[in-house]
Amino acid sequence: MRKVKALHPGDTIGLIAPSSPAPLDDLEKAVAAITDLGFNVKVGASCYESYGYMAGPEEIRAQDIHAMFNDPKINGIFCVRGGDGAIRLPRLIDMGLISKNHKVFLGYSDITILHLMFNLHGQFCTFHGPMPSTDMIKDSFHGYEKDHLLKAICDDEPIGELKPYDGAPPLQTLVGGTAEGKIIGGNMSLICALMGTPWEIDTKNRILILEDIDEPLYKIDRMLTQLLLGGKLEAASGIVLGQFTNVTHKDPERTFTLDKIFEDVVAKAGKPTLINGYFGHGDKKVTLPLGARAVIDGANSSFTIVESGVVKE
What we know:
Elements (H helix, E strand, L loop, with lengths): L3 E2 L6 E5 L7 H13 L3 E4 L14 H13 L5 E4 L15 H6 L3 E4 L4 H9 L5 E3 L3 H5 L7 H11 L5 E2 L10 E4 L2 E10 H6 L12 E8 L3 H13 L2 H4 L2 E8 L12 H7 L8 E3 L12 E3 L2 E5 L4 E4 L4 E2 L2
Parallel strand pairs: 1-16, 2-3, 2-4, 4-5, 5-6, 9-10, 10-11, 11-12
Antiparallel strand pairs: 6-13, 7-15, 8-12, 9-14, 14-15
C-alpha cells in the first residue's frame, strides 16, 4: 500500500461532491474552513450541481474526481460531504488515472465506496475523517477533530494510540487478543452494498473498521450477519466497531441492545474486537489512514495506529 504526499500550508485542496450536494451557504463556509486550515481551495464543478438527492449526474461527479486527481496543482482532495450517490460511480472511475496521481483523499460515510476502490484497486492510503460542510464548519471541530486531521494528513509520524475525547466512552474489548494489519472499511451499509461486485471489500489479514447512522437495529443485525456469512469478519485480523448513531427500533417492545447484537454476531467470528471506536457520524471523530497499519490490544482495550498514511517529500 503506497503512502501519499503529506500536505503543507499553502497547498491547494480540490473540493468535490461525489455524493449529495451541500447547500451553497454551507459550501461557502466549507471553503472558509479549509482556508482556515492553511490551504488554498479549488471548488470542483460537482459542488455546484444538483440532481435529485445527488450532486449532479454520475458523469459530472466522476469527471470532477478525474479532473482533481489529474491536476498537478491540486495537492489533496476533500469530499464536501457524504449523503447518497457514490454507489453509481465505480463503473465510471478510471483507476489507471487515479493510481498514477494518488494524493490525499478525505471523506467518510457514503465516500466509503471510493475509499474501497482507491485502497484495493489503487493501492494507496486514503483518509476516513471529517468533511468540510458537515464537520469542519462546526465549532466542535476545533481541538480534537482538527488536531487529529492535521496530524493524519500533514505529519509523517504515526498517529499512535487513539484516546477518547471529553465525554466519549472508552474503547472496550468485545473479543480479547491482539491483532495487527492494514486498516480497511468505513460505513457498514456501503460496504454491504458492494458485496458481490468487483469492488467488494477484501478484509483478509486487515483490521476492519465499521460504523453507521440512521439504521434500525434489525438492519444492523442483518448487515453484520451478512459480513459474517460472507466470511468478511473471520478473514479480518481484528475488528473495531465505531460510532453507530441515531439507532432506531422497529419494535421497542421486542428488540436488542446494540451491544447484544455485537455479542451475538460479531463475537462469533472470534477475532480480536473493540467497540466504541472514535470514528463515524458522532459529534467528534479521529481521522484514520485507511491502508496504514494498526494494532489492537484486547488486554488493554487499545487501538494504535503504528504507520502514517503520508510521506514528506
